[in-house]
Amino acid sequence: MKIIAGPASTALSEAVSAQSNIPTVSVVSKTFPDGESYVRLDGEVAGKSVAIIQTTCPPAQDSRLFQLAFLADAAKRAGAIKVSAVVPYLAYARQDKMFLTGEGLSVETIARMLKAAGVDELFTVNIHSEQTLTQFPFPAKTVSAIGLIADYFIKKGHQGAYALAPDKGAMYIAQQAQSVLGGDAGHLNKTRDRHTGQTVQTAEGLNVKNKTVIILDDIISTGGTIVGAAKILREQGAAHIFCGCVHGLLIGDAQKRILDAGVEEIVGTDSVPGPASKVSLSPLISQVLKGAN
Predict the structure, then answer these.
(1) Are 185 and 146 in contact (CB under 8 A)?
(2) C-alpha to C-alpha distance for 224 and 48, rounded to whole angstroms
(3) 105, 216, 225, 271: which could form a disulfide with 89 (CB 3.0–4.6 Å)?
(4) Beta bridge partners of 164
(5) Model confidence over 131-179: pLDDT tens digits?
(6) What is the pLDDT of residue 194?
(7) ∠ CA(118), CA(121), CA(125), 5° rounding?
(8) Distance CA 48, CA 289 (A)
């Protein structure tokens, strides 16, 4: 096997290569003056299985998806016998249901595009709904990085912290963290307006007084859910409030709003490179590739 280092995940690819002892193939990439993408494999892949590591997070998710597709096509044309796409953040994964007449299923469109480009299987990290992957036209699997995030907080001295999910649907995330942290776990109650996206949170039966609490979620986008959760935790008397997420999109001033709300630290992974990317996915992806090799 060889790792193809996608332009959006070069540093992560090198880290995975170092941990797994799987060699990398560099990629030459550029953007033409008209905005179109160009990629070229700078190494041999003939007769090899390859894993393209390429996150597709904002702000250039469309370009990154096209780069991924172009790399898959280039690998197959260069003689690769199998192409695995390792996509830490899978763009459009939350567009997996139709609510209004005239909508499509964007994530399924992306999956068909990748299939046509030559992708044979896909691995992603903490997709919003695992059920989505059952609709893909090739084998697709999600793995969880919550344990890595919990390990980070233990190393910071927060063993036994309360693992809090922002809603009941994310309780499985809090439970994954709880199994590492060793403390209690619970969730807020949340309802969302399907048209405006506005949410209302409540904390019925929550006991966090004088406790260190870590709010855990798969994705933080605008930060509204975390800001609301932090407000409730302060009202409930939490001693310290932290936030851990796999995909820290942190759109606009989300990071400032969360910190201003009383959260002491935001911890994300390098699925979305940025100031909150304090946990590397390289151990997790290395394990995935060793199992697939």
Answers:
(1) no
(2) 45
(3) 271
(4) 186, 215
(5) 999 989 999 999 999 999 999 999 999 999 999 999 998 999 999 999 9
(6) 66
(7) 125
(8) 14
Contacts of 193 (CB under 8 A, 6+ apart): 199
State whether residue 76 is helix, strand or coil. helix
Give the Cα-Cα-Cα angle 81, 86, 91 (nearest 5 degrees): 125
97, 190, 231, 290: the active-site residue: 190
Q: Active site includes 190? A: yes
Residues contacting 40, CB < 8 A, separation 6+: 27, 28, 29, 74
Cβ proximity of 176 and 149 under 8 Å: no
- Token pair, residue 201, equals 């949170």
Instruction: Determine how many CB atoms are found less than 10 A away from the CB of residue 281.
Output: 27
d(CA 91, CA 71): 17
Q: Measured between alpha carbons, how far is 284 from 292 in angstroms, rounded to an integer?
A: 13
pLDDT of residue 291: 82
- Cα separation, 150 vs 164, in Å, equals 12
β-partners of residue 143 are 125
Q: Is 72 helix (H, G, I), strand (E, B) or coil?
A: helix
Query: Environment class of residue 141 by beta-carbon count within 10 Å: exposed (0-12), middle (13-18) or buried (19+)?
Result: middle
Phi and psi of 168, rounded to 5°?
-60, -35
Cβ-proximal residues to 35 (8 Å cutoff; 6+ apart), any chain: none
Distance, in Å, from the CA atom of 172 to the CA atom of 161, rounded to the nearest integer, reads 16
* Alpha-carbon gap, residue 257 to 255, rounded angstroms: 5
CA angle 133, 67, 271 (to 5 degrees): 60
Output phi, psi for 29, to 5 deg.
Answer: -140, 155
Q: pLDDT tens digit string along 32-89?
A: 999 999 999 999 999 999 999 999 999 999 999 999 999 999 999 999 999 999 999 9
Cβ–Cβ < 8 Å for 52, 75: yes
